[in-house]
Amino acid sequence: MQKPGDLTTVMYHYVREIKNSRYPGIKGLEFAGFKRQLDYLGSQYEFISAEQLIAYITGESADFPEKACLLTFDDGYRDHFDFVFPELMKRKISGCFFPPARPVEENSLLDVNAIHFILASATDTNRLFNDLNDELRARDFSESFIEQHISRLAQPGRYDPAEIIYIKRMLQRELPFELRTEITRQLFEKYVEKSEAEFSKELYMTAAEIEELVRSGMYVGSHTYHHFWLNAVAADTQEQEIDRSLQFLTNVGAPTRNWIMCYPYGAYNADTLEILQRKNCVIGFTTKVGASSLDRQAALEMNRFDTNDFPQ
Fold first, then answer.
1. Dist CA 15 CA 183 (whole Å)
2. Which among 53, 120, 297, 306 counts the fewest CB atoms within 10 Å?
3. 152 and 175, same structural domain?
4. What CATH number corresponds to the domain at position 258?
5. pLDDT computed for residue 2 by the predictor
6. Is residue 105 in a domain?
7. What is the crossing angle of helices 125-138 and 162-169, to 10°?
8. Domain assignment present for 81
9. How far apart are CA 306 and CA 44, in angstroms?
10. Which domain does 133 fall in, by range?
């Protein structure tokens, strides 16, 4: 149990009716489980809004619940509009939504989501593992390069076996951006059998839907523009990512004064923190697991729990 004064923040991604969908292999939370989890969290904690948290962190308010819970929803999925939003409105709960701007503005597909649906569509993980390595061989990468990366990256994670971690890391950050994008697109077309633009329209919220979230009292914050691993790109690229995201927030009517950042993949570094401080960001959400003490000096590095850390 958390200590009095700590904040429990819960992180969600896919929330949908999974078993009866076209992609039953996607790793997400069944909508029925989401509703049961809200029942559980509501019995243990007091739900708060982003505005309450911001007011406390900025010193505008000294009041804060002893057992507070904040709900966050990453990546701007249509799931959040179709399933999450109506349920939160019905229960009078304010959630925090963090859509990356590029999929909404350019009708494109994030590499991380392309990878998710490749994995969900692949019935044979070993075949996918081999297909990825064959793509590397076709581009003249040596066997020693492939073996070194397998040795370093193929380590089991919190939720994934070693082979899946290897596939994710190679396509998310290890290869140069243009190359990993090219290989991901080829694997996506092979396994999912849809175009990027067509799939993007199905997967993400539109700008108009995000505007409706804002008008209805939900909080919409920054998740950057391209959804890069910020600790893997230069400081000037980070700043461009953040600036373009802030312009997107302005376009959809979301606040850009005393605003909240949600780091893609939980990745950031000292450059990120310096840029955010200059741009009047007051809260940053990581993917580090645990409750967060309400230390105003550490508000740019707040922890979050995953939905899997609570009963569903």
1. 28
2. 297
3. yes
4. 3.20.20.370
5. 43
6. no
7. 40
8. yes
9. 16
10. 111-198
3-state secondary structure of 26: coil
Mean pLDDT by 10 residues, the chain (312 residues): 72 93 87 98 97 96 93 97 98 98 94 92 94 96 97 91 95 91 93 89 96 98 96 97 98 97 97 98 98 93 97 92
Do residues 210 and 299 both lie within one domain?
A: yes
Evaluated on CA atoms 251, 254, 259, 260, the torsion sign reads negative
Q: List, as one string, the DSSP characters of 286-308.
A: ----S-EE--GGGGGGB--EEGG
Between helix 177-191 and helix 111-121 the angle, nearest 10°, is 30
Is 152 domain-assigned? yes
- Number of domains within the chain: 2
Which neighbouring-strand residues pair with 261?
Answer: 222, 284
Q: Is residue 249 part of a domain?
A: yes
How far is it, in rounded angstroms, from Cα 232 to Cα 310?
A: 31
Burial 256-288 (b: 16+ CB within 10 A, else e): beebbbbbbbbbbeebbeebbeeeebbbbbbbe
Chain position carrying tokens 């009047």: 280
pLDDT score recorded for residue 159: 82
State the pLDDT at residue 193: 87
